[in-house]
Design goal:
Length: 333
């Protein structure tokens, strides 16, 4: 998992500001930037993309960065920014609030809302980007924390900073396969820190339920090939009742069994259209994802997607490439 790094010092002085502005608008967020250092702009950016979450460290001279309504209408990544100064101070003017943020505090920025961030001295800060959809706290509840200077403290906040800095400096010890777990770790830490700054009962309960739901979904995803996977197995693995498990899944619009079935069929559909798996029979693909009975698999697949799995494969891979190379995909269901 490489960290992407950019230094304006590697460019001619006259090109530095424009190159930095273009790079940060793409990798971070689009803003209108003004500074007195245009002629010799010395700045650095390091970005670690973990998929759902992104970590960055940014350093630059005094400037003013405005997130305008026009930029939001043009492109909104639908993110929350958690910005933590490592050196210097930031002034955030956002959602009608003014926050003076030093190295002992952080501020949450909603990219869907306009605002201005100013630093009157050179600054280096850590940014944690989390998609709104990934953060397990309702936006209506989180709005109380946006745009305020929030203390890092010595507990969860300090842990969040330490983990983020460790990941930025130690990516060589992790593999690409670790990306999803590390992203979940970062999102969970951000959620826990923010919940600690909100109404303890409501926010903590809401965050706790959503974090549990995320863990359950991850558990299901990793065990879709297990034919014995069922709501009772999932509930037992998380020390909760089946009734409570079903309550957690109410907002998904599916029962737990329905969620398992949908995810299994999605994996089957993915494999059926993968030309590198053309040598594997349709029956084997169904069995791989929890459908050992070929007839039951064909029925479930057709009900979900309106076409038998063998026909679906021929549409997307081609009969001449399937199974034994004789165009017999349909017969090998």
């Amino acid at each position: 998992m490489p960290v992407a790094q950019f230094r304006t010092a590697d460019l001619p002085a006259g090109d530095r500001f424009d190159a930095w502005h273009e790079m940060t608008s793409s990798a971070l967020i689009s803003t209108v930037v003004t500074t007195d250092s245009v002629d010799d702009f010395v700045a650095t950016v390091s970005v670690l993309d973990l998929g759902a979450a992104q970590l960055s460290t940014v350093s630059y001279p005094p400037l003013r960065a405005a997130r305008t309504d026009r930029l939001i209408r043009r492109s909104d990544p639908d993110l929350y920014y958690v910005s933590l100064p490592l050196h210097g101070r930031l002034e955030a003017h956002h959602v009608g609030r003014d926050a003076d943020v030093d190295v002992d505090h952080f501020v949450v920025i909603d990219t869907a809302r306009p605002g201005v961030v100013v630093n009157r001295e050179s600054v280096k800060h850590l940014i944690i980007q989390v998609p709104r959809a990934e953060l397990p706290i309702k936006p209506s509840m989180l709005s109380a924390a946006v745009g305020r200077p929030l203390p890092i403290g010595k507990g969860l906040g300090s842990l969040m900073v330490s983990v983020a800095q460790h990941l930025m400096s130690s990516t060589n010890v992790y593999q690409p396969a670790d990306e999803r777990r590390l992203s979940s770790l970062v999102v969970d830490l951000v959620a826990a820190v923010l919940a600690s700054h909100l109404d303890e009962d409501g926010a903590a309960r809401d965050a706790g339920q959503r974090l549990l739901q995320r863990r359950i979904i991850d558990f299901i995803e990793r065990r879709l090939a297990d034919q014995d996977l069922s709501p009772s197995v999932v509930a037992a693995a998380h020390n909760i009742s089946v009734r409570y498990l079903h309550l957690l899944f109410q907002d998904q619009g599916l029962t737990v069994a329905g969620w398992i079935r949908e995810r299994r069929l999605a994996r089957c559909r993915r494999d059926l259209r993968d030309p590198t798996l053309a040598g594997r029979s349709v029956h084997a693909i169904g069995a791989r994802w929890g459908y050992p009975d070929a007839t039951a698999f064909s029925r479930a697949f057709k009900q979900a997607f309106g076409i038998p799995p063998g026909d679906y494969r021929r549409q997307h891979v081609g009969a001449e490439e399937c199974a034994d190379g004789q165009g017999t995909c349909a017969q090998r269901q």
